Structures are given as structure tokens and as C-alpha cells.
Amino acid sequence: MPIETKAYIEELYEKVEKRNPYEPEFQQAVKEFLYSLAPVLSKHPEYIEAAILERMVEPERLILFRVPWVDDQGKVHVNRGYRVQFNSALGPYKGGIRFHPSVNSSIIKFLGFEQIFKNALTGQPIGGGKGGSDFDPKGKSDGEIMRFVQSFMTELYRYLGPDVDVPAGDIGVGAKEVGYMFGQYKRIRGAYENGVLTGKGLTYGGSLGRKEATGYGTVYFVEEMLRSKDMSFEGRTVVVSGSGNVAIYAIEKAQEKGAKVVACSDSGGYIYDPEGIKLDTVKRLKEVEKKRISEYVKEHPQAQYHPGCSGIWSVPCHIALPCATQNEIDEASAKLLVANGLIALGEGANMPSTLEAMEVYLQSGILYGPAKAANAGGVAVSALEMAQNSMRYAWTFEEVDQKLQVIMKNIYENSMKASEEFGHPGNLVVGSNIAGFVKVADTMLAQGVV
Ligand code: NAP
């Protein structure tokens, strides 16, 4: 990398660190992104001159609010709500809402930052945002969840709108929570604006295929990577972390493609089933009964349960699909995966690999599909949901799935093309970051200093 570009990136990153202290996840996401842009910045000094990156790393706004609610015993609780509206160059802010006790401004900002470029990669007219709360839905009654969500939306609604900011689900937020959010938004606004949220139920504007989109999309993306080397999922051993929305549908599609998925997990530990995971059991336990994944072994005695999450990466596999949470694969786990014969890894979760783990994948030459590209299928179908809501029309599951496959193929091809054009052929980290960046940067240049 030319010395001036290197110095510019280092200086900018230093400023980001200083301006965002105690935000390690946000710093990590920015660092990974900035350094991969060196080839494009060397060729296009106009981005530096217009301070495009200085603007990109600063959210347009960060909204932080109090969320008081009353539990079933009449006790008052106070949580913290967040919405980061990061970048609206390409369209209304778009990005999910996460309910998890670990949520803080660092996590919301890292997710919102990555969302900008992921959304650009989908080719859809959507900007980048993200939100959430440190509320823990685990162990709460339906009534408690509804009262919490109503309080959350009572504050958030004023910043939303179908052409302003359109949230969806993420960890801890599924169709039920989105439904409560929509109900409260509708009640306060006094208007039926169902384009304000995606991931809705099918009876009020939800899209067929949205629930499956992130998991299926991740598998479609990995399939493209494998195809480039004349390989496929057929007969491959696969490990998927998590057992939530993304994981379940990644398992489903990988199995449909002929793979044997032998392990999955939750935040308590992982299961290993040498005969292949019985997805019906996982779906019932996690989607319906809301139980722990450890219960699986009671019904399938050939399977083993191991407490702790990181152990799942010691299970030998050809294809790994991390679909749980950020930084779930560190350097040691990445090395173990590669040593055990990994050929491809596709990130269904956001930033599941540490910077050191990413370096291991890139050095080892495995096929590596980074999150911004590999898990963009969810938000892509969310944008299709917005389109259907605008048209007051609904596509069939097959139509949505077909569009999703085309979008994932395009993301793969555009990322590959950028990796080649900028001198790092096959490096999809560089390729997807540059492809997403250029689209947003050119749009920002066109829109002036705003
Ligand atoms: P989810 O349905 O809530 O499932 C999350 C899964 O990850 C659960 O199995 C959960 O286990 C596990 N998990 C959560 N926090 C964990 C932790 N700290 N350590 C270990 N495991 C943990 O959420 P999701 O929608 O599938 O999201 C999973 C990942 O995909 C996240 O990184 C999310 O940002 C990303 N993503 C989601 C979408 C989407 O459309 N939903 C789109 C793009 C990216 P427990 O049940 O024990 O908590």
C-alpha cells in the first residue's frame, strides 16, 4: 500500500479510536473496513479529498432513550433503547433491532456501520441503521415482552417512517416482537403504514421468504464460492453455530443441498449428532417450546451435548457457518477449523470472526464469505418486503426465493469483480468492502457535503 494511503488510514483510524473510546466492537468493524479500502483509496484520491470516510465513520445520528416497563409482579424496570441512523445516502435507514443484555452503543454502532455497506451490496435503495435494547427477552412472559416493546416503540416511533427509517428483527427480535412494534406504531401514528417495519407477520404485510432469507442466502452465497472451485454442498460435513432464526434456515438449506449438518448450538453449549442434526427437533425446541439446545440429546441419545460455545469449532467439518453472534470465532478456533480440513466458511452472523481469525482464513486460502456479503440475504428480502408494501401486493414464496438467489449471486460476482479489479483476486473481504464502499461513496459525492 502506498505510504500516503497507509498514513491517511492510520491517522483516520486513530481519530476513530479517540472519538469512540470504550467501543471495541465498533473500532474493530471500522478497522477491518478501513484497511481493506487501501487499493481503492490509492486509485481514487477524490474520496479522500471529499472526506468521504471521515463522514462515513460518524453516524448521522445516535438516538438513546429510556425504556421503563412494568413486570408481571408490578415491579418497574428501566432498560436503555438505541437507534443509530448511520447513513442515508442510498435510501431510508434500514437495519434490525436487537434485544440482548449485551447491547450497548459499541455493538449498535458496529452493526449499523456494517449495515451501510451490506445494504449497498444488495443493490436495493436502502441506507444503514441498527437499533436495540439491553432488555433480555429470555424468561419473560408474553405480557412482559409486549409491555416492554410498547414502551420501546412509544419513544422510537417519532424517528421512524416508511421513507425515513425501517427497522426489522435481529437477535431476540422475531415476528412476535415485530408484531408488537407495529401494533404500537400504528396506534400512535393513527395510520396504517406497514412499510415502516419488515419481518412482519404474513397477515399484515410480511413477505413470504423473509424468515428464511438470511440463512438461505448464506448458503446460496457459499454455494457460489464452492461452485467457483467446482465443488458443492453435496456430501459435505457442515457445522452451524446458533439455533436461532439464521442458523435454523441455514441448516435447512444446507441439508436440502445434500450436506450433513452435524452440530449446532445456543449460548449455553453445542450439540454434536454424528447421524446429522434432526432439524424438526431443533425447530420445535427453539421456535415453539423456547427450550435449551441441550434438550436435543434427550430425544436423540446418539447425540452429545457439550457446555460452552467455542467447542463447536473443534468439530471437524468441510464447511462452517457461524450464525450466532459477534466474535464467536477467535484465532485459535480458526486455526483448529483449518487444521481439521475446512474448505469454506460463510458468515451468517455479523462479525462472528475476530480480526485474527479472519487473517487465518485469508492466509490459509480457504473460501471465505465475510458477513457483509454472505448474510445480506435477510436485508435484501426486507427491501423486497418494503417494495411489496408500497405496491400493496404480495409475491409468492418461489418468486421471493428466486429474487434472493439472483441477489446473492450478484453480490458474489460484484465482490469477486472488485477483488480482481483492485489487485486482490478472490479476497472477498477486500472485494465486498470495496464494492459496497464505492456505491455509497459515489452517491455521497453526488449529494454534496451533507
Ligand atoms: P436469534 O434468532 O435470536 O438467534 C441467535 C442465536 O445465537 C441463538 O441460538 C442464541 O442462543 C445464540 N447466541 C446469541 N448470543 C450469543 C452469545 N453471546 N454467545 C453464543 N451464542 C449466542 O438471532 P438471529 O436473527 O438468528 O441472529 C444471529 C446472528 O445473525 C446475529 O449476529 C445477527 O446480527 C445476524 N443476522 C441476522 C439477520 C436476520 O435476518 N435475523 C440478518 C443478518 C445477520 P440463545 O438462544 O441461548 O440466546
TrEMBL record:
One of its GO terms (molecular function) is nucleotide binding. Transmembrane segments: none annotated. SMART domains: ELFV_dehydrog (SM00839). Gene3D superfamilies: Glutamate Dehydrogenase, chain A, domain 3, Leucine Dehydrogenase, chain A, domain 1, NAD(P)-binding Rossmann-like Domain. It holds the Pfam family ELFV_dehydrog. Keywords: NAD, Nucleotide-binding, Oxidoreductase. InterPro entries: Aminoacid_DH-like_N_sf (IPR046346), Glu/Leu/Phe/Val/Trp_DH (IPR006095), Glu/Leu/Phe/Val/Trp_DH_C (IPR006096), Glu/Leu/Phe/Val/Trp_DH_dimer (IPR006097), Glu_DH (IPR014362), Glu_Leu_Phe_Val_DH (IPR050724), NAD(P)-bd_dom_sf (IPR036291), NAD_bind_Glu_DH (IPR033922). The keyword Nucleotide-binding applies. One of its GO terms (cellular component) is cytosol. The record marks 170 as: Important for catalysis. One of its GO terms (biological process) is glutamate biosynthetic process. NAD(+) binds at residues 214, 245. Substrate binds at residues 94, 115, 118, 169, 382. Signal peptide: none annotated. Residues 207-448 form the Glutamate/phenylalanine/leucine/valine/L-tryptophan dehydrogenase C-terminal domain. The active site is at residue 130. The keyword Transmembrane does not apply. It comes from the Bacteria. Homohexamer. Belongs to the Glu/Leu/Phe/Val dehydrogenases family. This is Glutamate dehydrogenase. It comes from Heliorestis convoluta.
